[in-house]
Amino acid sequence: xxxxxxxxxxxxxxxxxxxxxxxxxxxxxxxxxxxxxxxxxxxxxxxxxxxxxxxxxxxxxxxxxxxxxxxxxxxxxxxxxxxxxxxxxxxxxxxxxxxxxxxxxxxxxxxxxxxxxxxxxxxxxxxxxxxxxxxxxxxxxxxxxxxxxxxxxxxxxxxxxxxxxxxxxxxxxxxxxxxxxxxxxxxxxxxxxxxxxxxxxxxxxxxxxxxxxxxxxxxxxxxxxxxxxxxxxxxxxxxxxxxxxxxxxxxxxxxxxxxxxxxxxxxxxxxxxxxxxxxxxxxxxxxxxxxxxxxxxxxxxx
Length: 302
What we know:
The protein is α/β, with parallel strands linked by helices and 302 residues long. The chain contains 9 helices and 9 strands. The protein has a 6-stranded mixed beta sheet with strand order 2-3-1-4-5-6, sandwiched between helices.
């Protein structure tokens, strides 16, 4: 049997469902999923197996109009991931149709190599009637020469197997890029930090999700098979620290418990998680923070 392997970039507006689709394809939670936009900061790769093919997904930050250095670095990472991939899948939401953001992405697609295979995946199909889906398909294909169009629901799994099978058949022939049991190429430290950041985002809602970052400072393997994980949550102001800790430390305790439980489930062993909150007013302008997120600090230049 001939093996195939290659990279697939998922692109789209924030909240289009890229992380949900990635997790559905891979069959494990490797990219954080929240209702907050712009939660995927790094180019997280998930690895899915389909027959004799290994599909390596590059989950890119949502494409939007960048305002801050961090935004610019995220958008540069997204297009970098698309340019390097064997196949690009553009994800749009069925009920939102051709928004200004979608038009912007379609325009930017023209900058890719003309031979680049770009497929269209219309997500959240359960939210609209079938006749409007057909109309949206025709409109999108008149605006860009997509090689294939898929109707999916990433959340429910509808149409996802067909998309995965097609991707597997289109990848170049060659040896697998990762060991069979490896689902993500992100170091475990970063996956653990993303899990904690997801819990913070869900817990804090509108209060300060974009003004904090989480780093795994230390990871210690213990003789009994468990591990100790020390993380620092950086916030920009003293007031943020109070919000994060909560009354009598209730917020940080709840976040720590939820994150530890998910990490234990992911690793299949006991985890001792310790969280610290530090005020760092200028973390958005520190090159080191960008490296931790898998982004290039230079890409944030105006």
